[in-house]
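User: I'm writing a tutorial on reading structure tokens. Could you give me a worked example: one chain, its sequence, then its tokens, then a sentence or two explaining what the tokens reveal?
Assistant: Sure. Here is the example chain.
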Amino acid sequence: MSAESWPYQPGAVMPASSLAPTEQRNPRTADIDIVPTEEVLRLLNAEDATVPAAVAGALPVLAAVVDKVVECVGAGGLVHYFGAGTSGRMAVLDAAEVVPTFGVARDVFVAHHAGGSRALVAAVEGAEDDVALGARDAGAVSAADVAVGITASGRTPYVAGALRTARLAGAATVLISSNPAAPLAGLADYLVVADTGPEAIAGSTRLKAATAQKLLLNALSTAVMVRLGRTYSNLMVALSGTNAKLRSRQLTILTEATGLDQETCQAQLTACDGDLRLALLCLLSGLAPEAAASALASADGSLRGALAGRIRSRHS
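And here are its predicted structure tokens:
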């Protein structure tokens, strides 16, 4: 799909019959401008309450995406997010938060926002309509990677350019949309649709569609990190202690996972230079830091895998 063949032209008016569900009027909120303030809020809340069910319908496909991302990242590949406007901001937020939460390198989840960093805080007119910009931003995508396009309407030209370029590079491609008839579906190996329907304010996809995007992206990155061994049970054992709050949380995780007192846990964390996962393995296995680090490396960083290996070695 080239810029010339892309059916949407900047400045063109889309016919009503081709409007995405998110662009259509919502009969449930037709009187939102004449009801009391609390009723305005209740109408908005009622629409928001439909989002989790819409997201639930997308989980079978999302599970396949997670498995593919785990395969790619485990082999050294990267995850590239592409979006414009609110969709791009949701992508940037998710990619940024994965780093401190799971201790993953900053370049594993890469967010590309149409218009760049300036578009995070102000609209950059025309960026979302730029097919060539999407293609250029996807220039670094390789066959080892996964490219995820996020667009509520399923037709954003910037995302079209990015997914086409990623596909030509041999990358796995994913489209996250709220439009079951997304025009860009043909560019995606995996189509993840949370059909949130008409927004409370017609076309304002910063509402339900954006909420669905946040839930889907959070679920995607979190499930990938779980599958890659970045948690132990439901604890963030790869958490980086980059500030006082996070260092306190590290200590709490150690005490909860081991049942030991704070002094013992703090001493082990200090001996492991603040590496939470290493400290926890030492406390659970009795290994010294150097041996624990070797066990973690042999288990590809999985704490459960390292513990299982320790048990097997004891019985061999």
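What the tokens reveal: The chain has two domains: 16-227, 244-314. Residues 1-6, 10-17 have pLDDT under 50 and may be disordered.
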